[in-house]
């Protein structure tokens, strides 16, 4: 359940189609992206790549879509600085360096994908444009010495590419490729000293803060990929020595800032609070993953209970912080999903997924609800909470022109694992779904869980043609729901 599918399931779809293939899936470039080319692809000139950028109005719309959703949840950029860089680019397009262009192209591609979700009638045009922009990003990245002299723009580009792969779910090969890609990003970040607070003394307060923030994002993404793939975490807690990001708003710091950064005290919520939380919880989550994935049998139920206690204590602290609404990074437009707290959703899915992984081994054992009751009920609770989150994002799509459904693509593997876990509990005859033992309570609880699974199935069916692997996931969920309905 930790991995969505086996790699062999993509064999019935061409990952690299012939150039003259018509109506191919838009997921059809190499799973090695951004390190692989299609056969016979002509090398793009800088002039041709710049010409692929849409008009200023359209490009700004794409950037706005990115800022409204992805940047709001992940905080990869410093938005005021990025906006100045965008203006400088449009003033002198030929003066932009390749590292920044790769980052800009990837942001445009993500924004284009979000705009496609907002306007389904433009799907064909936006799909082609998105692929063109990602190809340009790949080309620009490969023109830089990022493997031995990476810049912050290179590292941001790699983070954005991982998100593009996750959101679109091009194939199971893409999912498998994200773990080594985040691992590479971690190593490149360490090459530049992001992991060590000692290296920051060579930088201005602003640049040191940007390094701290980017390191928090990179560590989170690498942890998440280890969580999804079930593969070991390559980073050690001992190397995680960088300073916690400052709890500040974007406009409180700029490139000309000097002096000590005035970090606000929690529970006050700022633009960077999500990074503060991710940095704070990293050692605990890393320790949990190492224990769960250990090759020996040293991980015991008592260990799981202690980790559960620590993580839920932190979740309660964070819940208090996130009660206040988030600030908007830019002025909202008519398409801005103003009622969605993307940071809160990101953290909710993250922590629920960690708990699901923590308790999975014990929750699946026979008579787990008796022998390992905390693990059993936590597994059930977190699976249900994840699918409820998926349903809420789907229900909100009508109010924000599909943006919430598009954003939920980041969590497809989390939602699929939750669905499989719930099905596992429903199929087992000796698994209660409600604490009271009355028969009526059990029937009502079973129907509630089954209704949640139906909603999950309906959401998967809407995108079943996205890729061959995605279609297999939809078929599996549908068959399991049908089986459970017949057995009810």
Automatic annotation (TrEMBL):
Lineage: Eukaryota, Fungi, Dikarya, Ascomycota, Pezizomycotina
Renumbered residue ranges of the record's region Disordered: 1-47
Domain Xylanolytic transcriptional activator regulatory: from-to ranges: 178-251
Cell location: Nucleus
A Gene Ontology cellular-component term: nucleus
Bias kind Polar residues: ranges: 1-10
Superkingdom per UniProt: Eukaryota
GO biological process: DNA-templated transcription
The name this protein goes by in its record: C6 transcription factor, putative
Record keywords: Nucleus
Annotated GO MF terms: DNA binding; zinc ion binding
Keyword Nucleus belongs to the record: yes
The species this protein was found in: Arthroderma benhamiae (strain ATCC MYA-4681 / CBS 112371) (Trichophyton mentagrophytes)
Chief subcellular location: nucleus
Residue ranges, compositional bias (Basic and acidic residues): 11-23
